[in-house]
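A reminder from the course coordinator: this example appears on the midterm review sheet, so study it carefully.

Given structure:
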């Protein structure tokens, strides 16, 4: 079964660079299915659409995201 992950980061240039670095690290670690989102609400919606947090092996996010900050999204997933 492929390892799945979600990575969310804002649209700023630093976020874009962080996403590229994270994607390469996830690939090296064996994650073949990586879903990327640009705001916290999109990430939360995608996680819920896929059946919840248990559908993913790992979820990575910036702490300060547009629409839904990571702390709020974390508590909504619990």
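Designed residues:
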């Amino acid at each position: 079964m492929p390892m799945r992950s979600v990575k969310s980061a804002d649209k700023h240039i630093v976020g874009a660079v962080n996403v590229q670095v994270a994607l390469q690290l996830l690939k090296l670690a064996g994650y073949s299915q990586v879903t990327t989102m640009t705001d916290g609400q999109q990430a939360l919606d995608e996680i819920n659409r896929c059946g919840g947090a248990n559908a993913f092996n790992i979820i990575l996010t910036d702490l300060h995201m547009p629409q839904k900050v990571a702390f709020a999204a974390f508590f909504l997933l619990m």
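The chain has one domain: 3-77. Residues 4 and 52 are 12 Å apart (CA to CA).
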